[in-house]
Design goal:
Layout (H helix, E strand, L loop, with lengths): L2 H28 L8 H22 L7 H26 L6 H34 L1
Helix pairs in contact: 1-2, 2-3, 2-4, 3-4
Length: 134
């Protein structure tokens, strides 16, 4: 991978992390919660979960696997298992909420589906642009 691709990946990761953090803060404030109950660990956990999903999606979607759904599953299944393991290990640091695994499954799957939709649309746009250029 060239330097420009690494910079683009870091920029995309940073933008997504910022948007997720802003959304989380807006939701907390909308519910009358002035501070994040999880504190700094929650921010670091969010960064790690996003990094796992973003890295898996970026690496696995470049695999030459057909059809596209299998490629996405090849990225999703191991990364979801890794996120579950991360949640389990974070439980050694502090007590987990009763719904921790359900919550992370919903959040991670939602994020991953958005990545898949964006990736599919980007591929479709590139293919359409390539066809019109020829």
């Amino acid at each position: 991978m060239n330097k420009e691709k690494w910079i683009n990946m870091a920029a995309a990761y940073s933008v997504i992390y910022t948007l997720i953090t802003l959304l989380n803060s807006i939701l907390y404030l909308g519910n009358g919660i002035q501070e994040d109950p999880g504190g700094n660990w929650h921010e670091l956990d969010r960064a790690m979960v996003l990094l796992i999903g973003f890295t898996a999606f970026t690496l696995c979607t470049s695999l030459p696997v057909k059809p596209l759904v299998l490629r996405y599953l090849a990225a999703y299944v191991p990364s979801q298992l890794l996120v579950f393991a991360y949640v389990w290990f974070s439980g050694l640091r502090e007590e987990l909420a009763k719904t921790a695994y359900r919550d992370i499954w919903i959040n991670f799957t939602g994020m991953f589906v958005l990545f898949c939709v964006a990736g599919t649309l980007a591929d479709f746009y590139k293919a359409k642009k390539k066809k019109t250029a020829v």
